[in-house]
């Protein structure tokens, strides 16, 4: 029964991609399919959303390879490794399949994507409680005069899309600040993906746990990356 449901789901996904062929955005459907074996073999599951506990879909500590689109963050513990350590596992792809890094095989227990829940390359920011994108999160696509539960707790962040974002050390867009543009740029056919990954606040020149507000645009003299960076193609066979 499980496999019948899965096949129906995959057939639905496939047909909805085919039906929308040629419609802008159809090709950038975000997903990651995780496989229990190397080389995309064995049991598999297609993830399209945040998944805080992979045991729910019988894929805990099991995945060894994957295919997909998007920037997916992979964690050893459930609930996105709230007790951060120094390891980082990510799956970055715009249509390729790959064996997962050796140290990330047979251990992933939760996963989520970075970026907008809507378009793959929409302007967006994700702020994380832990270094290396772990733990609780504050995310959005508009100015935030305060960060709610993540006030003075941010230790890493990701920005997606072409807009710069300015991060401030005080509420209401005051204090010290730094602006971030995407500095990683990928294309594959019509699919475009721009983002920056700030694993530690020291990369921004701001103290850990200091960010208190966020504004769209580059409104600081301290700038990481620059607008309109060159995009490199990504070979689908790599
Ligand atoms: C995966 O594919 C590579 C290249 O085709 C092959 O050398 C390797 O033996 C395969 N590994 C497994 C576990 O199937
Ligand atoms: C932020 O600015 C708004 C509007 O000017 C003001 O009402 C609010 O009290 C300010 N918040 C803080 C924490 O200063
Ligand atoms: Ca695990
Ligand atoms: Ca923190």
From TrEMBL:
Domain of life: Eukaryota
Signal sequence bounds: 1-19
Keyword line: Signal
Pfam families listed in its UniProt record: Inhibitor_I36
Gene3D superfamilies, per the entry: Crystallins
Protein name: Uncharacterized protein LOC108668890
């Amino acid at each position: 029964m499980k496999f019948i449901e899965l096949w129906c789901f995959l057939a639905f996904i496939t047909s909805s991609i085919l039906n929308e062929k040629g419609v802008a955005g159809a090709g950038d459907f975000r997903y990651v399919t995780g496989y229990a074996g190397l080389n995309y073999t064995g049991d598999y599951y297609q993830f399209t959303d945040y998944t805080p506990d992979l045991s729910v879909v019988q894929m805990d500590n099991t995945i060894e390879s994957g295919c997909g689109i998007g920037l997916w963050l992979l964690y050893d513990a459930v609930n996105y490794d709230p007790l951060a350590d120094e390891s980082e596992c990510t799956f970055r792809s715009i249509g390729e399949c790959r064996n997962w890094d050796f140290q990330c095989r047979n251990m992933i227990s939760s996963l989520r994507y970075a970026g907008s829940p809507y378009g793959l390359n929409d302007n967006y920011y994700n702020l994380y409680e832990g270094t290396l994108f772990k733990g609780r999160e504050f995310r959005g696509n508009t100015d935030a005069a305060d960060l709610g539960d993540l006030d003075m707790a941010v230790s890493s962040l990701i920005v997606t899309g072409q807009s710069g974002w300015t991060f401030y050390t005080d509420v209401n867009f005051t204090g010290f600040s730094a602006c971030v543009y995407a500095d990683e740029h990928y294309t594959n056919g019509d699919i475009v993906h721009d983002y920056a990954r700030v694993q530690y606040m020291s990369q921004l020149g701001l103290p850990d746990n200091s960010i208190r507000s966020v504004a769209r645009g580059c409104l600081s003299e301290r700038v990481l990356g620059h607008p309109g960076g060159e995009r490199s193609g990504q070979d689908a066979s790599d």
